[in-house]
């Protein structure tokens, strides 16, 4: 059996965020030895370096969007990089960067799935639904909009990344750990019928049942994409994010989530986003993210 081939793609930008610092995320993950830890798991790992894009001009929103042209440029770069790795038979891991970058990443995965006749399932691990539009968001920060854009609800420049509109449909998403949603955004999510497993659902049913529901119907023809926003985790264990929201999954719940995804054997691509070393303590959040990603690739606490 050949080794599974992993490609790391750094995307060092906070272009869609409300705080500076997520641009340092890729380097923090490298410092936390992501490549070495995955190689120890028997995976073949190549670091492709960083996607290039425009500087963050740090301007106020224009017509409801901050940095729209720059966000589009970064996402085109991400789309091309992720698509190239998928076409070469590699599993791409996007090292973000803020969550607006999932537009390019997931659009590339969706294009790959269409070409291969595969069914796409996206597990969106996040404190936020990221289903905002210019009308629903007070800030105009595009890292709150990627799911909406992927589903065709957003500006032309972002909805058309990858050339297929919409890039995905709402039914491919399973949102897990949600606990902070804007009022107008709630209605948009309800209208789109996105499947949301919020923290109340996890509290009432436990992570095991929640993940069984989120993974229901995944089969041999499913490409599983995990979009892991580090603010999914409770800030007591993961302080290194710009938008902390109390009451997220604890360490064991997060581990179980990752282990159950690994058990499917269907993981095909991954985003790690919103890691902000400027808010971190001694790189502990990056180390935790790497620890959880190891579990995504089969590291278990059990003795096999």
Structure explained in plain terms:
The protein has 304 residues and is of the alpha/beta class. The protein has a single domain, classed as Arginase, Chain A (3-Layer(aba) Sandwich). Helix content is 37%, strand content 17%. It is built from ten helices and eight strands. It has an eight-stranded parallel sheet with strand order 2-1-3-8-7-4-5-6, sandwiched between helices. Helix 9 (251-264) links the parallel strand 7 and strand 8. Helix 9 (251-264) packs parallel to helix 10. The longest helix has 20 residues, at 68-87. The radius of gyration is 17 Å and the shape is globular.
Put the structure in a nutshell.
This protein is of the alpha/beta class and about 300 residues long. Helix content is about 35%, strand content about 15%. The longest helix has 20 residues.
Q: What percentage of amino acids are in beta strands?
A: 15-25%
Tertiary shape: globular
Q: Would you list the SSEs in sequence order as H and E?
A: EHHEHEHEHHEHEHEHEH
- CATH-derived architecture: 3-Layer(aba) Sandwich
CATH-assigned fold name: Arginase, Chain A
- The CATH homology group name: Ureohydrolase domain
The pLDDT mean sits at 96
Cα-atom radius of gyration: 17 Å
Total individual domains = 1
Organism: Dyella ginsengisoli
InterPro entries: Arginase, Ureohydrolase, Ureohydrolase_dom_sf, Ureohydrolase_Mn_BS
Enzyme class: hydrolase
Protein name: Arginase
Sequence-ordered SSE layout with sheet pairings:
Blueprint (H helix, E strand, L loop, with lengths): L4 E7 L13 H7 L2 H7 L3 E7 L17 H20 L3 E6 L5 H15 L2 E7 L20 H5 L5 H4 L13 E6 L4 H10 L2 E4 H16 L7 E8 L21 H14 L2 E7 L10 H13 L8
Parallel strand pairs: 1-2, 1-3, 3-8, 4-5, 4-7, 5-6, 7-8
Helix pairs in contact: 1-10, 3-4, 8-9, 9-10
């Amino acid at each position: 059996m050949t080794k599974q081939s992993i490609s790391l793609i750094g995307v060092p930008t906070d272009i869609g965020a409300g705080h500076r610092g997520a641009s340092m995320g890729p380097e923090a993950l490298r410092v936390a030895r992501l490549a070495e830890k995955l190689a120890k798991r028997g995976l073949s790992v190549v670091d492709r370096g960083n996607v290039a894009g425009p500087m963050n001009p740090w301007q106020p929103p224009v017509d409801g969007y901050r940095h729209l042209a720059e966000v589009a440029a970064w996402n085109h770069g991400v789309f091309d990089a992720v698509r190239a790795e998928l076409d070469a038979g590699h599993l791409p891991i996007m090292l973000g960067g803020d969550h607006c970058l999932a537009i390019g990443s997931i659009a590339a995965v969706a294009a790959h799935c269409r070409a291969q006749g595969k069914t796409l399932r996206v597990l969106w691990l996040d404190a936020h639904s990221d289903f905002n539009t210019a009308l629903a968001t007070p800030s105009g920060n595009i890292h709150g909009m990627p799911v909406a854009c992927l589903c065709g609800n957003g500006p032309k420049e972002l909805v058309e990344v990858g050339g297929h509109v919409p890039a995905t449909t709402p039914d491919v998403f399973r949102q897990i750990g949600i606990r902070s949603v804007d009022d107008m955004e709630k209605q948009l999510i309800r209208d789109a019928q996105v499947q949301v497993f919020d923290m109340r659902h996890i509290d009432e049913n436990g992570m095991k049942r929640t993940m069984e529901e989120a993974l229901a119907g995944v089969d041999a023809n499913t490409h599983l994409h995990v979009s892991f926003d580090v603010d999914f985790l409770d800030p007591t264990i993961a302080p290194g994010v710009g938008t902390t929201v109390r009451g997220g999954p604890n360490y064991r719940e997060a581990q179980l989530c990752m282990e159950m995804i690994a058990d499917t054997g269907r993981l095909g691509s991954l985003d790690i986003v919103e890691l902000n070393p400027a808010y971190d303590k001694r790189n502990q959040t990056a180390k935790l993210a790497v620890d959880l990603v190891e579990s995504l690739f089969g590291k278990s606490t059990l003795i096999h």
